[in-house]
Amino acid sequence: MRLSVFLLALVFSSFAWQTSKAQNHGDDIEIELITVGVGPDYWEAFGHTAIRVKSNSYDYVYGFGYFDFNEEDFFLKFAKGESRYFLGIEPTQQALESAIESGRTVWKQKLNLDHEEKAKLIRKLNYLAQPENRYYKYDYFRNNCTSRIRDIIDDVTHGEILTSLHSIEKGQSWYDLTFPAKNQSWMNLGIAIAYGLPAYKDRNQWQLSIFPDVFAQDLEKIKANWVGELELVHQPKPEESEFSQYSFWKTHYAMFAIVILMLILLHYGKTATIAVNSWLILQSLVGIGLLLLWFFTSHSVAANNVNILLFFPLAFLFVFKTFNKEKIITFYVIINMLWLVAAVVFTSIYLFGFMMINVIVANQMILKLKK
After folding, report:
1. Which residues are within 8 A (CB) of 367 and not within 5 positions of it... i.e. 6 or more apart?
2. pLDDT at residue 246, as a whole number
3. Can you give the pLDDT at residue 82?
4. CA 223 remoteness from chain centre
5. Closest CA to 121 of 12, 26, 217, 230
6. pLDDT at 267 over 80
7. What is the C-alpha separation between 154 and 163, in angstroms, rounded?
8. pLDDT number for residue 366
9. Partner of 118 for a Cys bridge, out of 26, 38, 131, 142, CB 3.0 to 4.6 A?
10. What are the two backbone dihedrals, phi and then psi, of residue 172, each rounded to the nearest 5 degrees?
11. Alpha-carbon dihedral 38, 41, 43, 44, rounded to 10 degrees
12. pLDDT at residue 86 above 90?
């Protein structure tokens, strides 16, 4: 996703000229909010927001959703919650064609800003597009491609968006708006496991407007005189979309297949021991991973994760006879019951199949002790 030096120079020089023009002839320039629906790849799972700057000789979109897989330590930074994203610039036609070819819905919304507001917005974009300013630390829920554009528009309109949305309590959480992600079964599994209590906290409408479709609808609802109607640019045909309910249930099918497989394996002596020990070790590895996310990364929504009860980090100790005592195993079962209570409270029973496996394994360990 790197732009060439030549292209950057061309874009920046053109944009600098356009900034000067905007300050003197603001009415000749149109500003639009472009909202793109979900796409097939996991980084497109929640859509995209961009700003379109258009005149007779200039038509580009500016978006903060760009990243570079080739960046040094990219995946390590991603795991630590320290990903660097940047402001990218694309010809509008190219950006729209890319979204449409991916089978994504596209909307546009004209922002009828006055002369000074247009000039201020373009100056801010011009400043943030400079190589030394375009990178930022990405956060899924506090600093993403939508929140940065929302904040820019809010700033140039004198805080009108924040004033309108901050006091609206919607009774929804970030979990409500991200789960299930369309066509992302394994991503849903990761979300269900990794989300901590902050993800389930009810948020006000300003905090929820970090999602592209929510922000576009919110702009329309505040009924400011500078907000145009939300217009549909492209709606993919049903056969163009890869999204289906089946993709949501795929992980469930896999989960319950593991439950059935575990029940079968437990009928055989040596196989039962291997199956139980393998599950206990896997469970511990996941639990340790959750602790690392909680205490050693910048993923704020991974804190206070009750799934530690389900994926008990010390479960591997049951592999050793010293810890294989009935009272300790009973405590392990109680921990799983506590998880079930928490899951019901937060209406998040997606991982129920794993609890079933834990109870089956615990029962097998107790039966083995009594023989």
Report:
1. none
2. 55
3. 95
4. 28
5. 26
6. no
7. 9
8. 77
9. 26
10. -125, 155
11. -20
12. yes
Map out the domains of the chain as residue ranges.
5-184+204-240, 245-370
Q: Cα separation of 191 and 199, whole Å?
A: 10
Structure tokens at 199: 């993800």
For 276, the token pair is: 């139980």
**Helix intervals (H) in the chain:** 5-24, 74-80, 92-101, 115-129, 145-156, 160-165, 174-178, 185-194, 205-208, 212-221, 245-265, 269-296, 326-345, 352-370
For residue 128, which of 213, 192, 64 has the smallest C-alpha distance? 64
Q: How far apart are CA 70 and CA 248, in angstroms?
A: 31
Q: Is the separation of the CB atoms in 192 and 350 below 8 Å?
A: yes
Residue 245 in tokens = 């309910």
* Mean pLDDT, rounded, for 156-169: 93
The predicted pLDDT at position 16 comes to 52
Contacts of 251 (CB under 8 A, 6+ apart): 185, 186, 188, 189
Of 185, 146, 234, the closest CA to residue 40 belongs to 185
Query: What mean pLDDT is predicted for residues 327-339?
Result: 87
Q: Is the pLDDT of residue 280 over 80?
A: yes
Q: Is 97's pLDDT higher than 60?
A: yes
- Say how far apart CA 86 and CA 133 lie, in whole Å: 9
- Of 177, 172, 125, give the one whose Cα is nearest residue 148: 125
Q: How far apart are CA 215 and CA 144, in angstroms?
A: 12
| DSSP states of 36-82 | E---SSGGGTT-EEEEEEE-SS-EEEEEEEE--TTSTTHHHHHHHT-
Please write the tens of the pLDDT for every residue from 168-196: 887 899 999 999 888 788 888 899 999 99
Cα angle 235, 241, 246 (rounded to 5 degrees) comes to 140
